[in-house]
């Protein structure tokens, strides 16, 4: 992978994490919706997230925030030896 490709991947990850953090709050083992304040424990990550009534974030892409976070962190660089 070229330096340009690595920089692009870092940029996508950073932008993705910034966008994710505008919608979600990580508090220990619970994620909270930043708008409706409904939470979900990590142990329930396989279940669709249940937002509060009328929450503007409640959409198909916001149903599995734990998995979205895992995907964003999945390509972290290795720890140097």
Question: How would you explain this protein's 3D organization?
Answer:
The structure is a single chain. This protein has 81 residues and is an alpha+beta fold. The protein has one domain (3-71). Helices cover 37% and strands 14% of the residues. It has helices at 3-23, 65-73, and strands at 24-27, 30-33, 39-41. The chain has a three-stranded antiparallel sheet. β2 (30-33) and β3 (39-41) form a beta hairpin. α1 (3-23) runs antiparallel to α2 (65-73). It is elongated.
Topology:
Layout: H1 3-23, E1 24-27, E2 30-33, E3 39-41, H2 65-73
Antiparallel strand pairs: 1-2, 2-3
What's a concise summary of this model?
By secondary structure, the chain is α+β, with helices and mostly antiparallel strands. It contains two helices and three strands.
Keywords:
81 residues; alpha+beta; 2 helices; 14% strand
Read across the widest sheet, the strand sequence of neighbours is 1-2-3
Order of helices and strands: HEEEH
The structural class is alpha+beta
The count of strands amounts to: 3
Shape: elongated
Strand content: 5-15%
Mean pLDDT: 90
Q: Report the radius of gyration as a whole number of Å.
A: 15 Å
- What's the domain count? 1
The main pleated sheet reads as: 3 strands, antiparallel
User: Roughly how many Å apart are the termini?
Assistant: 20 Å
């Amino acid at each position: 992978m070229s330096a340009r490709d690595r920089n692009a991947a870092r940029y996508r990850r950073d932008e993705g994490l910034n966008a994710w953090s505008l919608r979600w709050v990580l508090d220990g083992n619970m994620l909270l919706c930043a708008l409706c304040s409904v939470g979900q424990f990590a142990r329930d990550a396989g279940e669709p997230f249940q937002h509060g009534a009328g929450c503007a974030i409640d959409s198909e892409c916001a149903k599995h925030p734990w998995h979205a976070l895992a995907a964003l962190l999945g390509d972290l660089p290795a720890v140097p030896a």
